[in-house]
Structures are given as structure tokens and as C-alpha cells.
Amino acid sequence: MKEAHPFAQRVNVAVSGGDGYPIFVGPGSLEHLADLLSRYAPAFRYAVIADARVADLHRAEIEKALGGLAAEVSWFTFPPGEAEKTRDQWARLTDALLDRGLGRDSCVLAVGGGVAGDLAGFVAATYLRGIPVVQIPTSLVAMIDSSVGGKTGVDTRHGKNLVGAFHPPAMVLIDPRLARTLPRIERAQGLAEAIKHGAILDRPYLEALEHAAPGLLAGDEMATTACVVGSVRHKAAVVQEDEREGGIRKILNFGHTLGHAIEQLSGYAVPHGLAVAWGMVLEARVGERLGVTEPGTAAMLARILRLFELDWERVPRFAPDALVAATRTDKKAREGAVHYVLLRKLGVVARDPDWSRPVPVAVVLDVLQSLDGEA
Amino acid sequence: MKEAHPFAQRVNVAVSGGDGYPIFVGPGSLEHLADLLSRYAPAFRYAVIADARVADLHRAEIEKALGGLAAEVSWFTFPPGEAEKTRDQWARLTDALLDRGLGRDSCVLAVGGGVAGDLAGFVAATYLRGIPVVQIPTSLVAMIDSSVGGKTGVDTRHGKNLVGAFHPPAMVLIDPRLARTLPRIERAQGLAEAIKHGAILDRPYLEALEHAAPGLLAGDEMATTACVVGSVRHKAAVVQEDEREGGIRKILNFGHTLGHAIEQLSGYAVPHGLAVAWGMVLEARVGERLGVTEPGTAAMLARILRLFELDWERVPRFAPDALVAATRTDKKAREGAVHYVLLRKLGVVARDPDWSRPVPVAVVLDVLQSLDGEA
Fold it and tell me: Does B249 qualify as catalytic in the annotation?
């Protein structure tokens, strides 16, 4: 970021053997969108993809921010909700871009939460065999987590994100002010991923989040910016080391094996953040049961999550064997065994044998069966 | 290829900043499939994707060749024909793999012609965000052209290959004996791409093809192998220099701008090879009209194509303005202008300004309007 934007942080993610892509974070950074696009994602035409709700909320300010561009800008919207993250919606959006005659010299701007980022990212990844995408997250979960790292995709009836591609963005622009309209409960969903970053990599960061919980839930701009910068740095460092999830990137799946199973069994009625939150507690308990994770870790995590109003009482109960069955279609399954990322203790992930390990079904069932007595 | 396979040629394609992938070419190389897979594409499970006709013809010999593998092998078939290269068929195959519970430690074997390679390649590119694919072409067009280079994708109502991904194979195994059952007319279709390689890069190769035409059309094993090796070397050299078609790879699109338009307007009733053949003649004529291509080039190309029984009389006539309109949705369109790859002369492509150039619509219309008088 040039000196004229002293308020913003720049994080670089060097991936794919290339120069990588820049991530700009800062309140007010949206005002520099046209300038940054012309430098980092120049195109003949821009296709803004957003859900209808995000378009209602932010279209005016984004069009204002794009005002300085000579290029043509078109908007493509879809109905809000995870239920729209499908191959059908992807095909519909792709056809809309083709109808408009967008060529390879076009660029997609993915504006919105995790769904828009994943869906628009997959449209860009497969449009004419791939055109650039710029991620402009508006939800906290997208700012903290999903806009960085290049994962794109859609859900199928078999599970989440089972169809997709790695398609690193040309640039990520994170303006925490775009999240100012978020309801408190959605903020908490996003913060679950920040807590995950602290749990696997950085206990002091986890403690800082804990202290900042009231401000973060209330939408305090400084606290939010600090949290986004902290999480983006952690995520970028991991992705930079292992873009394709052959090794260390797996640790970002902590909480996601059982978390995805909870989401799937609920028909996606349980929000992602809440599902991952309790996925983390359950997987910490699995680690404790195996003697890998320091005793008391799951209880400490549970206490922190309650501070963020991610209450276990809001998660519906599912039959343990149904949950275990749902983990089998997870992408992390290998040679028939489901692999789990485990903690050594808060802030330290277990490295051996290879960032994740197969866990006997009996151990997982045992943890799930003793759940209500302990939670 | 180890010394035990002295009959086979090995070509290496170093792409994506990695070690690249090997291409094995040789009559009888299929017998070494299990051995080569365990070295270059080891997996827990293999998913063979083929159309029903190819499966009928080759399933027994491929299963025999896979006999030495400890891994589980499943077959997934689809109806033959370009009409099946759709998002719907891609989704159906993906769901079939998910139904079977195939994880990230699986590998797709794409067995068949260009349709199977593109479709199965796109399934692999997007399955769990990407699993390896091995290309095992059975048609001459796939052996000569489409199995090398990593392009995958499907057609939409807007045109061919408009949705897809670059997904380099883990390995390509080309056994010309798999093409022994091909009808003469399908052989000719594939040879059109070999003629293209000669036309853009290598006049002596073009002349060798011309002399070998009777043997190539009759399916002579030595002539076919020599042609496949020659074309694979040319294609691999181009792809290695420019995998993502930012520069020199564009030259492989010679004949394809108007060729795709012919295919599209015919509802894909005109076979790809025939369409490209006459796309080349027309584009050579465009180049002559612009003073870029040596006069007489189009006529020489037309003469060679007739030797291969790719007769102009078999191409239906379309209104010139409809053809020009159909080129607009082509991926090669840039900033509203359709770009053409032009020859300097036979064997030499025009390098300037950037391997392709915008051509005024009036010039293309003029060539198309004067067509029947000259062809």
C-alpha cells in the first residue's frame, strides 16, 4: 500500500511460485478501491457478484468507490444464504456473465460473506478456464478467514465445499467498516475462526481476543481491525507455506471435521461459526481422550466461546453415530479413515505425524456419547 | 521410462513451476500402466471415466493392464458424444464419485477421446478442489492434441469449453494400439490437429505428414506412432513455455476461431477436426488478405487437407455474419475485438504483435463472402 494510505496494513501472500497477492486491511480502505484495482487487477470489464442483501446494503458505496475506473462495471446478484452455494447458482451466474459477453480480460469482484466469496471465486476459477477474482469481504468470517487463501467452491447434497478449485485472488481488500451493519450474532460467528487461529497457533492472540470480546461483539472499529489484521497474518503465513493443503494448511481444519458434520446434519441451520466452535471443543476433547491434548483444554475453549455468546445450548443434539457417519464424506478422509487435527495445548497444534491423524471411530463415539454430561 | 520399455518415447512437460508430468508414447505401452501409475500417480482408489462405447471396446484390456495394482478401481461411464460435455454430465459424474465415497487420495483415469479427457479432467480439477488425473487417450485427436496441455472443461449453450480449468495431468499414457479400432473418418479428424502443428511450427513435419497420409488414414502403427510423437513434442514444447495461454500458447488456436464458430453454428454436427481444418484455410486466407500470410498458403493447406479426406464439401455453408457473430463469444475475444492467430507462411506463425491480433470484421466478412467462389 502506498504511503498515502497510512491507516492500512498490507499483508502479502506469496503463493503458486509467483509474486503472490496483496491483502489490504484498514477502515476506509474501500475509498482506494479504483486505484488499487487499476494497479493489482486491471481489467477491461468488472463483474461484481454479491447476494441481493449485500447489494442492497453496499452497492451505493461500492459504486462510488469504483467511480474512478474507466472500465465497465456490471452487477450480478443471487439470493442470500448458504443454500445458494450450489452448482446451479454457479451455472446461473456463469451464464449471466456469458450473456453479457464478458471475455478473458474481465475480473470478478466477490463482494460479501463466505458464500459470495466461495461462489463468485468458483465462477471466476472456471469462467473461460479462469479469470482473476478480487475478494472484498463484508462479513467478519470472510474478513477473518475465507477471503484469504484461494479456496473456492460450492456445496452438494454430500457435504460442504466438495466441488471447487484453488483460485488465489488477485487482491483482497478488507474494509472493516463494511461490517458495521452486521448483527451481533453474525459477528460472533466470524470471531469463532479468529479463536481457532489463536487456539492452533498463538495463545497470546487468543487471550487478547478474550479481553476484547465485548468490543468485538459490539463492533468496535479498532478492536475489529486489530482482530482482522491478526487473523489475516496467521492465515496468510500458513497458506503461504502450503497453499494446496498438502501439509501444515490442514491445521486450519481444526474444529471443522465435527463442525462440518454438525452443519450438515442440521441441514445448514446451525451457522458455520457456531458449528466450528463446538467442533473445536469436541476435537479438543478427542485429543484429551487420546492423551495428545493437555487436560482442561476443551473446558478452557468452551469458556472462551461462551464469552463470545457461542453457546453450546444453541447447538441441536445429533445421534453420535450419525455425526461420525457424516464425517466420512469430509474431504479430509484418507484411505477410509477420518483424520483429525489435534491440539497439544491452547496455542499449539500437534505437529506429528503429519498435522493430522486418523482417530479410531470408538474414541470419537465415546466423546460424543459423554457429551451432554460434560458440556 | 525405464530401460525395460525401449519401444516407448518419453516426453516431459515441465509446467506450473513443478517437475512437470511425463508423457509415455508407444505401441504396447498400456501393458505398463499399473507400473507407471504406481510411480507417477499413486492413489488409494482409481476412478476410470469413459464413455459407454469406449468402455465396451477397451474395458477388458484396461482392466487387465490395471491388474497389478493393489488399489480399488471403479468405472464411471457416460453416453458418447460431444453433446454430453456439459455441466450436467460433469455434476452427474462428480456425484457418482461422491456416492462411491472417493476421497482426496483418489485419482481419475480419463480414458477416451477429447470429450472424455476434457470432461473427466474437469471432474478431477474440481473434485474436492482437485485430485490428480491421468490421461489415457483412445482417439487420434486426443493422442495428438487434447491429452497434453492440461486444458479441461465443458461446453455451454454459449459455446465450447467456456467453463473449465487448467489442470495438468499427473501423467499421459498414449498407446497408439488403442486407436486401432478407429474408423478412417475419425482418424482424419485427429490428423487435422497434427496438420495444424505442422502449419504453425514445422514445414518439414507437415510434408512428412503429407507423404504419410495413406498410411495414417489406414491406421498404420509405425506412421501413427511417429505422428503422435511428433505432435506431442510440438505441443509439449509450446505448453511448457506458456501453460496458461498468456502468450505463445495462443498459436495452438490457429484455425480454431472460425473453426469453433462453424462447429457452434452446426450444433456440433460438424466434427471438430473438419471444422478446424477449414478454420485454418479461412484464417490463412484472412492472413493473405491482410498481407501477413504468404500468398498461396491457404490453397496449399486446402490441398493437403483434401489428401486427408477433410473435404470442404462436407462443411455446411453458414451466413458470414452469423459466423462472425459466433466468434464473439470465443474465449479469445479481448476488449470487444476478436483476435486471430495468423501464419507468415506454412510452418511459421506470425509472432507480432503478441501471437495473435485483432482483425477488422470487414476483412473476415470479405473472406467468408468470397468463399464459395474460391474453395
Answer: yes
